[in-house]
From TrEMBL, chain A:
<protein>
    <submittedName>
        <fullName>Sarcosine oxidase subunit gamma</fullName>
    </submittedName>
</protein>
<dbReference type="InterPro" id="IPR006222">
    <property type="entry name" value="GCVT_N"/>
</dbReference>
<dbReference type="Pfam" id="PF01571">
    <property type="entry name" value="GCV_T"/>
</dbReference>
<feature type="domain" description="GCVT N-terminal">
    <location>
        <begin position="77"/>
        <end position="191"/>
    </location>
</feature>
<dbReference type="InterPro" id="IPR027266">
    <property type="entry name" value="TrmE/GcvT-like"/>
</dbReference>
TrEMBL record, chain B:
<dbReference type="Pfam" id="PF08669">
    <property type="entry name" value="GCV_T_C"/>
</dbReference>
<dbReference type="InterPro" id="IPR023753">
    <property type="entry name" value="FAD/NAD-binding_dom"/>
</dbReference>
<feature type="domain" description="SoxA A3">
    <location>
        <begin position="516"/>
        <end position="600"/>
    </location>
</feature>
<dbReference type="InterPro" id="IPR041117">
    <property type="entry name" value="SoxA_A3"/>
</dbReference>
<dbReference type="InterPro" id="IPR027266">
    <property type="entry name" value="TrmE/GcvT-like"/>
</dbReference>
<dbReference type="InterPro" id="IPR013977">
    <property type="entry name" value="GcvT_C"/>
</dbReference>
<dbReference type="InterPro" id="IPR029043">
    <property type="entry name" value="GcvT/YgfZ_C"/>
</dbReference>
<dbReference type="InterPro" id="IPR006277">
    <property type="entry name" value="Sarcosine_oxidase_asu"/>
</dbReference>
<dbReference type="InterPro" id="IPR041854">
    <property type="entry name" value="BFD-like_2Fe2S-bd_dom_sf"/>
</dbReference>
Amino acid sequence: MVERISPLGEAFRPGTYGNLAEGPGVTLTEATPVTIAEAAAWPGSAVALSGAIETVTGLSLPAAPGAGVVGGGAVAFSIGPGRYLVAGAEGLSTKLQAAISLDMGTVTDLSHGRAALRIAGPRAEWVLSKLFALDFSPAAFPVGEGRATAHHDIFAQIQRTGGEQFDIYVFRSFARAFWQELCAAAEETGYEVR
Amino acid sequence: MSARRTSTGGLIDRSRTVRFTFDGKTYTGCAGDTLASALLANGITLVGRSFKYHRPRGVYTAGVDEPNALVTVFKDGVREPNIPATQIELYEGLEAESQNRFPSLDYDISALNQLAGPLFGAGFYYKTFMGPVVGPIKGTRFWMVCEHFIRRAAGLGRAGYDKDPVRYERMNAFCDVLVLGAGPAGLMAAEAAAKGGRRVILAEQEPRAGGAANWSGETIDGKPAAGWAKTMAERLAAMDNVRLLTRTTVWGYYDGNNLAALERVGDHLAARPPGAPRHRHWSIRAEKVVLATGAFERPIVFPGNDRPGVMLAGAAERYANQFGVVPGEKVAVFTNNDSAYRAAAALKKAGGAVIAIIDVRPEISAAARGLAEEAGVVPLLGHAVVGTAGKRLTKIMVQRFDAATGRLSGDVRPVEADCLAVSGGWSPAIHLASQAGRNPAWDGRLNAFLPPEPTQEWTGAGAFTGAMTTAEALSTGRDAGLAAASKKASRAKLPEVAAPALEVNPAPVFEIKADGKAFVDLQNDVTADDVRLAHREGFVSVEHLKRYTTLGMATDQGKTSNVPGLAIMADARGLPIPDVGTTRFRPPFSPVSIGSLAAEKHQHFKPDRLTPIHDWHVERGARMMEVGLWHRPMIYGDPGETVEQAYIREAAAVRASVGIVDVSTLGKIAVKGPDAAEFLDRVYTNMFSTLAVGKARYGLMLREDGIAFDDGTTWRLGEHDFLMTTTTANAGNVMQHLEYFLDVVWPDLRVHLTSVTDQWAGAAVGGPNARKMLEACVTRSKVDNETLPFMGIVHGEIAGAPVMICRLSFSGELAYEVYCGAGHGTHVWEALMEAGEPFGITPYGMEALGTLRIEKGHVTGAEIDGRTTARDLYLDWMLSKKKPFIGSALMDREGLIDKNRIRLVGVVSLDGQPLGGGAHIVEKGSLEDLGESIGHITAFCYSPALSKYIGLALVKGGKARHGTRAFVSDALRKRFGPVEIVSHHFFDPEGSRMHG
């Protein structure tokens, strides 16, 4: 199997940076799952589609805007009405393809097309608030949920994957620019690249 | 020296000495000082020259309302003018300079202006310089000549030219309750809301919470008010659901309860920690807002009221109580209300000598009398200050005054004083309320405007509402907080306030009419006479008054001058004040740095978009160019090669053997669903439902108005699964266009669109040896003509990576587009380079790509330019007659089929000189006489295949002109020369090479 090469290139430099007076406030990592797929339902078949996602991944998605779940081997979150981003292990796209009939909706593999950048730590909400006009507080943005938004030209689909952790899915071609943007935004709190 | 530091008292830290320079001279202050308090502590009372008359001016206030003491600060290699000294926190090494003076603050040549005082009234410049005819120069021309010199003489500080290297940031915040102002009212409101379970942001423009508690000298719950406020603020800051933002000015109240604030993160620091911004722009979305913004003290207008040493009484009190500075040796107080008595007592307590209290009122409250006793003076009631003397104040003139009639009587008595503390009453700070409310309401007892009816979700508390005592501030604050709390929070017991029971209503005296310049607006040098002049000349509306006299303009936005100016106009018109009206306030409340509004590094508005093979190109020495956001190789130049030499070499190599180009930037859209084929039939001019699986077809889209929109190939990967490609530049527009039609026009079609531009890396391999080269590296599929005919698609592997190969040609050669997962892009590219090595494979860039397509006459965005039709481009063979499609209804409009439209042709340079993009094509003329345009060149190159300079052009008549001569006429590049108009299919018009 040929390895997928990271889009970050030399912009990915492990180490600690910025204001480290109180230790790094966030940790930045690249966390692109092996498989990323978009599953989209036809109007009226969103429930059936999320059922199919559950069959494949075991993740039970509530039927609510921004809903999402973080599981052991996979994650899924809503990125639009009847649209979900599902990510996980090798072969996930194929399995989803098989489980989701043409009557239900479509599946598009994006494993190479998106990159997931992870920000974690006590200042993650603070740093992200510099970049997005979203309420990142746990009450407004609970673990598992997702938001589809943008930072200027860069579309971003964000899932809260932990109490202090967010995975930001961006188009691969913008990953390096956005990574640098994240690093710059995190200088104030100090950051560690891992 | 007059002003001085007290030995004890105040909230400053005398043990921490801070050094700073003012006009090049070094001084010291204490931690906790502002520049203004430190200057006063050093006995410096003259700090600036006025705007128009260059009169000496001193510190007038202690806060954001400062009109006079504007200085230029030098920091980070940048000069920043017009910063109020009252708003600059002292830090080690602070460098500040006075403004608007030459050669020095003490001796300013332009101060001669004031001798011509009567001349420089309102509208002087316009009246004098707009009209006259001086030789050939007249009217506005004359004004424009004079303006230059006038602007040099008048004004504030000078801006610098250096790039600001400092970092600015923006921040988004959400809260249930935003409390503006952390004085006693704001603190109570924040606490009540927070205890009620709400998420609270408490914003305070000063470095420390407490507001007036920091200088009132009152006692709250048995503690000094400042200490109570400090404890309260610390308690709030420790709560999880409270964010206390000090040094943060909320300056704009926008729709949807969205408020803008400026946090001065680093201005008070000698050195910012790494990554810390200087300023942070906050965009705060609040469910509810509590305005606890307090009140501003007003001056009384009287002749000589601008002399250094004259200041607001509340400011004098604040310098004494908060900063431990007595602003004068001999302090006089002039007032129309009780609050100044508290100042007198405070100044006395701090060690100053209070010489006199001059009060316009005939009677005062018992509490005021008590404070006067504390200050050690018997107030001079029914008197007014009618004049002052000294460059720095040395003397005031006092005369008997009748507050009811405004009449002066009796002899003028001089009183020696070096500080005059003035109070004309208090005006609620209703600026933000005015941005989110109706017209303010005049209160005849407070003689001030009260907050308007809200038009957004806010309530008020404290002095902002006209509740002027601390006890009222605490109770209204608590109630506002409770009202904003989600659950029924119990009403906390109110803290006990120990304060003198002062009368809060002032006497309605705004001006003392006597001889001499009496300033209403100190920052703009607007006098009471200017206001009356405006009235006489017909500028009676408040808005006209403001524009004619500049009253209330500039950095302080008239915080001290608005109400007195209005009162003087009302008096001139013989109307009650509310009948004259008021100007409403707009954002910003106080000056905002432009940097904070830009707030992000420029490049982040234009992120770099990189292909999966980007690093390979750079390593290979490619010269990159920006194409929209994308970075693409322009040429892979050899050492010493020019751009032209490089692209000629690259293009020739493709025709001779094989070349490879990165086409990952092409827009790619997955079009999937049961109705995908039907959808494509509607959006493309040609048929796609008839396309076989495993085949690709070139497609053209029109806009609704029949103009050509975009082109590209679409590949049928499955019965209901298409991969659409678009031009690089237009990918986003096409996506939007298609989504609009699916969402709005044809919601019944079951089609999903997903951008997969970034999913695939693409390499176009073209040239006579392209197939041989692929045969050497592609596994799991054959690539011979039978398996992979023109427009065929196969799936295979290259070096272990899955690939999808489509045989299509932009170059006109036998060519293939090889697609693979973006993460495998470099891997596959390198394998292709290796397979091509025996054939001398040449990577080529955008220039060669353009050359090859011009030789073939293929159109791009240069020809599909939003004005051309399919017919203009000779693409009408693609307009299906069997079905309607987007644009089909309007594409045959009269104007779009006109015979005189410019249409696509080829042009060949006949003089061996290059052509230029955008150059006109003319039938006759010369370099001097450019002639009438019959069209223009859209693209040009040197064609290695033809050994000539050629171009594509849009020319009237199009094909009909093939074989005729014309001229290229390029005024911009000074080029005029003969061309031949030919078919745009320059090279291999039969297409034998790509079908081979």
